[in-house]
TrEMBL record:
<dbReference type="InterPro" id="IPR012349">
    <property type="entry name" value="Split_barrel_FMN-bd"/>
</dbReference>
<dbReference type="GO" id="GO:0010181">
    <property type="term" value="F:FMN binding"/>
</dbReference>
<feature type="domain" description="Flavin reductase like">
    <location>
        <begin position="18"/>
        <end position="173"/>
    </location>
</feature>
<dbReference type="GO" id="GO:0016646">
    <property type="term" value="F:oxidoreductase activity, acting on the CH-NH group of donors, NAD or NADP as acceptor"/>
</dbReference>
<dbReference type="InterPro" id="IPR002563">
    <property type="entry name" value="Flavin_Rdtase-like_dom"/>
</dbReference>
<dbReference type="Pfam" id="PF01613">
    <property type="entry name" value="Flavin_Reduct"/>
</dbReference>
<protein>
    <submittedName>
        <fullName>Flavin reductase like domain protein</fullName>
    </submittedName>
</protein>
Amino acid sequence: MFYQPKDGHGLPHNPFNAIVTPRPIGWISSRDSAGNDNLAPYSFFNAVAYEPPQVMFASTSAKADQDGTKDSVANIRETGVFCVNIVEYAMRDAMNASSGMYDKGEDEFALAGLEKVACEIITCARVAGAPAALECKLTQIVKLPGQSNYTVFGEVKGVHMRDDCLKDGAFDVLAFNPLARMGYKDYTVVREAFSLERPD
């Protein structure tokens, strides 16, 4: 099968999300200028540079109570900071609960039954007990083609790692089993790893 997205795919569900998988999930916490905390998962997320360390996430829809975007992007525009919380398999239900289109100012930490703790160097909350959290300062927001499509880039200014995830001096993802997004309503979990040596 071949299709051009502009012409449609003719399938019951869009296959694009299922083709680009698995995708890590950035559980983005942010705070608006009035002090309201927000927490939302984004599967268009990744690390993009080592020095200095940088990450990105993309928001691709809008809410009626925000100006053409969602709470996370609106909050980060206001404050210039955000935190990326890493999602472990054990937190899958809380992550899913935080994904709803809730009213502006609604606290997803409370809705998902999550404890929050303050970040160290930015004015933002983070998920208590997350395997890792990246405190970020906004570098740029890029408007992408299409309605309400924005990519947010941030420089990682602080890194939290849960002590039990450090094994022999390395951050061990098998200690907590990262959750990843697949297509449609599907997710997967990392339960095994293997190593390859590069030719160089």
